Each structure stands twice: as structure tokens, then as C-alpha cells.
């Protein structure tokens, strides 16, 4: 009897071990597209869109968690990056105009056949005056330049605000009064927006409204939504993060947002397929997926891909001096309005000026009248912290800054702060790793504001 009992125990232990190993392998396998997809996509964009060096990107941006153990192969021959870990492998390819795209659900051959169908502006910004160009004005404002230089040195040279900033720019009364870069970057470097791209989607939505293509308060027609409460979702609900769709925005695990960005070919479809969790407009929850649905709806409304890609380029970028910006797409071809714009620090400052100037730029109205007011009106369930794809300071999240400040916020510390009452725009780009080195934004804002006389 003892021998039988021992055998049973051994078999039970072995069965448990077998199940545990099997589940562990299954779970790791589910993570591998994210573990390898993140560095493949990030590095491909960094090398081929931003012109950065592989070793520098790996040492700074990709040196965290399991990601730092991936093996990354950059191919200059076919403009691609392949990343591998254990038995997992992911590949991202660069295509001119489209930027870098992670291969998911589509063959590389088919994707490479698709060419960017529009052309960029041919003007030389080095010969055009600010803000449309890069010839900077000689005059300055009444800002304390000595104090601002001290802030710049503390931020860029001493890392006195904790995070590692790649680029920094301050515009006061429409005039650049501070601009600085780490040695490996310059005024021509394109920087990743991360979620600041959401605010650009707000601008494009505004242009759709201005051109009478959209009524953002009408329910959108997505066929799969018509049989349940999702049929009530409006574009406004999506942009105010109150769609009610079930969503998990946790970047530290296999969540909805990481599955969307690194496992899916069609980001909007993945999001629109989510079930409803709350009635539309009743619950606030930050969702990158919702923004990609807005970009899909834009593409669907325009109805022609050449016109769709022209739309962002000609109606927004070219109009505000951002002719060299790159708006990347997912594998389905929809622009990733949640996360993937590459532009210079000056470009991001120009975008801030568009909103500071109530939707006008270089004497032309770009956004409809009242759009900036709509954008900065708090979403009903956000407790004053969020408008329409812009963050608000009405909740005093940054105590050192005025209540009227609003901002474009992106992962790893990308920021455009717009402070109308102080006629101030602050651009901060770079890498602010968490939790030990998160940028002290409030202290930085306070010091900059002290420089205004």
C-alpha cells in the first residue's frame, strides 16, 4: 500500500509539474510577440526615421526589463530590424513616407508593394523665417534669459530634474527663447511622439469638422456595433475617452494596449471588437485604442487612401511648417493616431502654437472656430483632468502651473505644455524611465514660470 501511495504522489507531482511547465511555456509564448515586437518596431523607427545609432538606442531606450535581453539585427540592405528572444522573432520594415511597420497579419512582400502615394513640401525651411521655417528671429521677449539658461543647463547637462531629456524648447509670445539638445541630437532630428500623437488626431478631427465631413456628436456607424449599446458611441465619446468600450491600458503586461501595438495588424478593428463595459459618455478611462478607431473612421470617411494620407500632410503638417513629419501606419495602413508620429522639437512647438493661437497659423485658420475651447473643456467624467485628446491642469495635477495649462502627454516623458495665460509653450522630449528616474515636471514648470518677468 505504501508503494502504491508513493507512486500516486510521484505521478501527481509529475502531473502538476507538467501542467505548470506547459502553462509557463504557453504564457511565455503569448508574451514573445510583445517582447520582440517592441524593440523591432522601436529600433526600426529610431534608425530609419530618426537617424539614430543602434548601440545608442539599445543602451538608453531599450535597456529595461526583458527587452534589454533581445537580440536585434539591423539590416541596411532592406531597411528592416529583426528582434529575437528565446524562440520568438519579430520583424519591422521601413518604407519611405510610412515609417516603420511591424509585420503582423500581412506578408512582407505585399506590404512593400504599397508605396506612399503623396509627396512632401519641397520648400527649404532653412531659408524661411520662423514659425513656418527655421530662420529664428533675432529679438527676444521680456523673459529672464539668465534664469532660463540656468534651467536649461540644469535639465540638459546636470539632469537636475531627474529624467534624461533629449530635446528642450521654450516659445514665449511666439518667439523661441530656449532650445537645447543632447550631443547625439539636433534641430533636424525626428523624435517619437508616443501619445502626443493623440492630440494631432484631435487637430485632424477638427479639420474634418471644419470641412463638414463630420458631426462628432452623432453615433458612428460601425456595423458590429449596431446590435448592442456600442451603437450609441460618438466620435466625441472616443476622443474624450468615454466610449465605454472595455479596455486595459497597462503597459507593463500583456494588456489590450500592448496586444494592439505589438500583436495586431489592424489596431482599430482590434479596439472596435472589444465589448462595451459602460454606457457611452458615462465613464472616463484612458484608451489608446479609441484614438485608433477615430483614425480609422477618418480613413473610412475620406474613402481614398491617397486622399487620406494627403489629408494629414496637406491640411495639417504643411500648413504649420511640419513638412518633414512622419505619421506611421499599422499593417492595415491606418495611421497610428494613438502613438506614432515622428517630428522635430520645433515641429512640436509649432503644433503647440496652433492651439495657443486658437487654431490659426501663419494668418490662416486651420481648426474651426471654437475647436480649442471644445478641446479644453473637461470630459464630463474626467474630474477636470482631460478634454478632447489633451490633458488639462484644471485638476491641479501640476500645482506649479496655472489652471489654464493644457498639454500633449506621451510615454517616457514626451510633453508639449501650452499655457495661454503666460503666452508660453514648452516642449520636452526624450527618455524619462520609471519609477526611479521619472522627470520632475512640476519643478521644471515652476522654474520656467519664474523666468517670466
The low-confidence parts are none
| Series of secondary-structure elements, N-terminal to C-terminal | HHEEEEHHEEEHHHHHHEEHEEHEEEEH
Tally of DSSP helical segments: 13
How many DSSP E strands? 15
Considering DSSP H and I runs of 4 or more, what fraction of the residues is helical? 25-40%
Radius of gyration: 23 Å
Counting structural domains, the number is 2
- DSSP strand content: 15-25%
Shape type: globular
Could you say what the CATH architecture of the largest domain is?
3-Layer(aba) Sandwich
Oligomer: single chain
**Would you tell me which CATH topology of the largest domain applies?**
Beta-lactamase
With strands numbered from the N-terminus, the spatial order across the biggest sheet is: 6-5-15-14-13-12
List keywords for this structure.
453 residues, alpha+beta, Beta-lactamase, 2 domains, 6-stranded antiparallel beta sheet, 4-stranded antiparallel beta sheet, 13 helices, 35% helix, 16% strand, globular
Q: Can you characterise this structure?
A:
There is one protein chain. The protein is an alpha+beta fold and 453 residues long. The chain has helices spanning 2-48, 54-60, 108-113, 145-156, 197-210, 235-239, 256-263, 267-272, 288-302, 305-317, 345-356, 371-375, 441-450, and strands at residues 71-75, 80-85, 88-95, 99-102, 164-172, 175-181, 191-192, 326-327, 341-343, 360-361, 364-365, 391-392, 406-410, 414-419, 424-431. The protein has 2 domains: 2-113, no CATH class; 145-450, Beta-lactamase (3-Layer(aba) Sandwich), CATH 3.40.710.10. It is 35% helix and 16% strand. It has a 6-stranded antiparallel beta sheet with strand order 6-5-15-14-13-12, with helices on both faces. The protein has a 4-stranded antiparallel beta sheet with strand order 1-2-3-4. A 3-stranded antiparallel beta sheet has the order 7-9-8. α1 (2-48) packs across α7, α4 (145-156) packs antiparallel against α13 (441-450) and α5 (197-210) packs parallel to α9 (288-302). It starts with a helix and ends with a helix. The model has no long low-confidence stretch (mean pLDDT 93).
Amino acid at each position: 500500500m505504501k508503494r502504491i501511495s508513493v507512486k500516486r504522489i510521484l505521478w501527481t507531482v509529475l502531473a502538476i509539474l507538467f501542467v505548470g511547465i506547459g502553462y509557463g511555456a504557453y504564457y511565455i509564448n503569448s508574451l514573445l510577440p510583445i517582447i520582440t515586437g517592441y524593440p523591432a518596431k522601436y529600433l526600426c523607427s529610431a534608425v530609419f526615421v530618426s537617424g539614430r545609432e543602434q548601440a545608442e538606442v539599445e543602451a538608453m531606450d531599450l535597456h529595461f526589463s526583458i527587452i534589454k535581453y533581445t537580440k536585434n539585427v539591423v539590416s541596411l540592405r532592406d531597411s528592416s530590424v529583426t528582434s529575437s528572444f528565446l524562440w520568438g522573432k519579430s520583424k519591422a520594415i521601413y518604407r519611405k513616407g510610412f515609417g516603420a511597420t511591424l509585420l503582423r497579419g500581412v506578408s512582407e512582400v505585399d506590404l512593400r508593394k504599397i508605396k506612399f502615394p503623396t509627396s512632401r513640401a519641397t520648400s527649404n525651411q532653412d531659408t524661411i523665417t520662423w514659425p513656418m521655417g527655421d530662420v529664428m528671429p533675432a529679438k527676444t521677449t521680456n523673459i529672464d534669459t539668465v534664469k532660463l539658461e540656468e534651467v536649461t543647463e540644469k535639465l540638459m547637462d546636470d539632469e537636475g530634474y531627474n529624467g534624461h531629456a533629449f530635446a528642450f524648447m521654450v516659445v514665449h509670445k511666439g518667439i523661441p527663447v530656449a532650445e537645447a539638445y543632447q550631443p547625439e541630437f539636433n534641430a533636424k532630428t525626428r523624435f517619437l511622439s508616443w501619445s502626443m500623437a493623440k492630440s494631432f488626431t484631435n487637430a485632424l478631427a477638427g479639420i474634418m469638422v471644419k470641412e463638414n465631413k463630420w458631426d462628432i456628436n452623432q453615433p458612428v456607424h460601425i456595423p458590429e456595433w449596431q446590435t448592442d449599446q456600442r451603437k450609441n458611441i460618438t466620435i466625441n465619446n472616443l476622443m474624450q475617452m468615454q466610449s465605454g468600450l472595455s479596455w486595459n491600458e497597462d503597459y507593463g503586461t500583456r494588456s489590450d494596449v500592448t496586444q494592439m501595438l505589438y500583436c495586431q495588424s489592424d489596431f482599430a478593428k482590434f479596439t472596435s471588437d472589444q465589448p462595451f463595459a459602460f454606457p457611452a459618455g458615462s465613464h472616463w478611462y484612458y484608451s489608446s485604442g479609441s484614438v485608433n478607431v477615430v483614425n480609422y473612421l477618418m480613413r473610412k470617411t475620406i474613402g481614398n487612401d491617397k486622399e487620406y494620407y494627403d489629408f494629414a500632410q496637406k491640411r495639417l503638417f504643411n500648413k504649420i511648417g511640419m513638412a518633414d513629419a512622419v505619421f506611421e501606419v499599422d499593417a492595415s495602413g491606418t495611421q497610428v493616431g494613438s502613438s506614432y508620429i515622428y517630428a522635430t522639437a520645433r515641429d512640436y512647438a509649432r503644433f503647440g502654437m496652433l492651439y495657443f493661437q486658437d487654431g490659426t497659423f501663419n494668418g490662416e485658420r486651420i481648426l474651426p472656430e471654437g475647436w480649442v475651447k471644445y478641446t479644453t473643456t473637461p470630459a464630463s467624467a474626467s474630474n477636470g483632468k482631460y478634454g478632447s485628446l489633451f490633458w488639462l491642469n484644471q485638476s491641479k495635477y501640476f500645482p506649479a502651473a496655472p489652471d489654464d495649462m493644457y498639454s500633449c502627454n506621451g510615454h517616457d516623458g514626451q510633453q508639449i505644455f501650452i499655457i495661454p495665460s503666460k503666452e508660453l509653450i514648452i516642449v520636452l522630449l526624450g527618455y524619462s524611465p520609471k519609477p526611479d528616474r521619472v522627470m520632475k515636471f512640476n519643478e521644471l514648470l515652476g522654474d520656467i514660470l519664474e523666468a517670466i518677468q
